[in-house]
Design brief:
Low-confidence stretches: 1-25
Helix content: 40-55%
Number of helices: 16
Strand content: 5-15%
Strand order of the largest sheet: 7-10-9-11-8-12
Amino acid sequence: MEFRMDKGCWKHTLTLLVVLVGACAEASLSWHMDDFIKAVKQVEDGDPGSEPVAVLKRLRRAAGLNDAFIQHFLSDADSGGPGMDAGLSAYIRKAVQHTVTEDAREEGVVLTSDGTTVALAPLLLGIEAGLLSRSERRGVRGLYQLTLAKDLALPSSPSSPLTKFLGPDGCWDNVTSPQVFTLLDSPSLLTNAQLNGGMDGVVLGMDARSRRPLKLSSLLTEYYCHQLDSRGLDAAPRLISRRRRENFRGLVSPPVLTRQVVKSAELQRRLTGRSKMDVKQRKELVAVVKEGMKEFVHKYIDCPPIIPRCMWGAKPYRGTPTNLSLPLSFLYIHHTVTPSQPCLTHEQCSADMRSMQRFHQEDRGWDDIGYSFVAGSDGYIYEGRGWQWQGAHTLGHNSIGYGVSFIGNYMASLPSQHSMGLVRDQLASCAVGGGRLIANYKVQGHRQVVNTLCPGDAFYNEIKGWDHFWTGDPV
C-alpha cells in the first residue's frame, strides 16, 4: 500500500518538528555561561565570516533589546541579517531578557565558571558599543549609559534613594546545570548580577575598542573560562572575569559615572516625551545620585567579591547564632592546614569549604564552620559565618574580632599575593567602611592569642609587615 500525505498534513508535521527540535535545543542548554557561549557559536556558524558586531546585532534582535534608548547609541537591531533557528532564538531571548519575578527569581542571568552570576544584556550592549567605537578617540559612545548608568538612573529620585536598590546576590538550584536563580533578599532594580554584567560590559567594551576580536564566542571564552595555574591570580592575564572589580576600578571614576547617570536620566525623559528638568529638579537628582554612588562604590568597587554560603553548598547553622556587637576591634588571621593546598577553582574552593564545615560540625561539634570568612586562591572570599554571626575561630576572642582563614598550609610558603591583598587591603577596608571594624582595628595571627602554629611560620612573618599588625598583649 502506498502512503501519501497531503500538503496540509506535511506543513503541520514540519511545523511540529520545528517546534519539537526548538524545544529540545532550548531544554538541552542550561543557564551557564558555557552553554550561552555554545549558543553564540551556533549563531556564528549560521552566518560564517560574520563580524562580531553583526553577531551581537542578531543576539539583540532575538532578545528584543531594541528600545529607543538603545537605538540612540546603537543601530536598529531589526534591520537586515539572516534569520535564526526558532529554538536557538527562544533560548537567547530567555537568556538575555532580564526580569525579576514576584517570587524573587531572577531571569536573564547566567552562572559563570568562577561562581559569579552575570546579567547578559548589559554585557552584550557594552561589547557592541565598544566595537562600534573603535576609531573614536574620546572614549566609547554610550558605554556607561548602556551598561550601568541607565539602570542606576531608574531609582534616582528624592523619594526613592539609590541605596535601596543595590543587590542582592542570589543562589542557583544547581551549579552543574543551573536552571533557577533565586535572590537572597527582597528583589531590587539593581541586583548583583546586573552590576556584574554592567561592569563586565564596561571592561570588555573598552577592550573591544582597542583590539578587534575575530569572534564574540572567543572573546567570551577568554574572559570567562580562563583556567588558573598553581600561581593563582598572581600569574593570570589582566582581562578575565575574576579581575572584574579591579579592572572596573581602574577604568571608571565615581564622578564620571555620576555624570553619566544624570545624563541617562535626562535622555530617558527626552525619549519618552517628558519635559526637561528644571534647575531644582536637576539639583535634587544630582544630590541623590551622589549619595547613592557612595554606596555603590563601597559595595562594588571597594569591597572584594564574596561568594555567599549557598553558592558553596553550606549546610544550615545548627541552633541559634549569636549576633556580634559591631564594630569589632580585631582581625585574626589563620591558615587551614587541612586542606593543605591552595584552591584555584570555584569547584575546588567550594569542596574545601564543605569539607571544613563538615569537620567543624561533625568532628568538633560546633554549630557551623568556625571562620568568619575564608580566602581562596581563585580570586574570591568565601562567606563563613559572615559579618553578623559570632565565629568559633579564636578561642576566647570570637566576640571581639573576625577570623579570616587562607586555604592552604603556610608554614614554609605564602598565600598568593592577590589573595593576601583581597583580605589585607579590601576585606578589612570594606569592614571599616561598613561599620563592622573600627578604623584603628588590630591584626593578629592566631598564634598570638592561642597556643598554636597557625597561621604558619612563613605567613606569620609576612603579616608582621601589614598595616594594623599589633604586637601588644592579648585582650
